[in-house]
């Protein structure tokens, strides 16, 4: 009887220490959302009780993420065991680091939307300028049009120069000239934006013998100085990613080098090049110092890039905040609405870049 019992015991399935229970598939997401809801409720109670002046979105996300790390570890330890709990703890810490890195962006977007939405939704913000407006009312049509015109002309100047320079460095550049171009592009990447504005102002002042010159085209030139190195660097890296086998196959068929670049190299890397161009536009569209120096500011509409001062959105935000009138809140609301408009334009450009990159990606074209 004892031998039979021993045999049954030996044949019984042994418990596997690594085969414990398992949490549902989307449990980590649910725990994270629940943690944010709990901390959000706490901050909402503090706001209603008067302990805080407003709802703290950054504190909600930060403390909610910390609570998520603790909760997912405890839950996994109870259900899945110590080994998987440690794995989930490390994963949650990585997630927490990512969320904390995004906190400045979340705080910026949240603050801009909350403060800028009232003036942004007014019907006159996109239809009127600030001409003869000293209090509430008016809009930013003149600044929006100025930003679009100046940035558009800067793009027309920068993209051909930057793209051709990148093609030269990648396909033709050898020796000291290529090294010199690379060196100066690196130097231009790090110059302060105000230096670009001073360069444009000094250049056109000497050219037209006018020490007080202010016009939109000068601002476009200043922005192009900042855009060109970004376009060169991003386009150069994208062109380097094109496999040499594609070039050699075209040469083997007798295709000239210039036609190989035009028909093979550029179409293959067009998605990355367009993304780099959009990033360069997003980088300069919010510049204030160079435009304040060479383009100036005005409260009236001006569609002519080559005559008189021209307002842009960054300068509009600055002037509304710096030169407040008797109705202080109206000026602050317009400043926040201008900042919100600028953020939306940048987000639209980045979304458009991703869409273009997805459409023209070589993987989707096969």
Automatic annotation (TrEMBL):
PROSITE patterns: ABC_TM1. It is found in: Cell membrane. CDD domains: TM_PBP2. It comes from Cryobacterium zhongshanensis. This is Phosphate transport system permease protein PstA. The keyword Zinc does not apply. InterPro entries: MetI-like, MetI-like_sf, Phosphate_PstA, Phosphate_transprt_permease. One of its GO terms (molecular function) is phosphate transmembrane transporter activity. Belongs to the binding-protein-dependent transport system permease family. CysTW subfamily. GO terms for biological process: phosphate ion transmembrane transport.
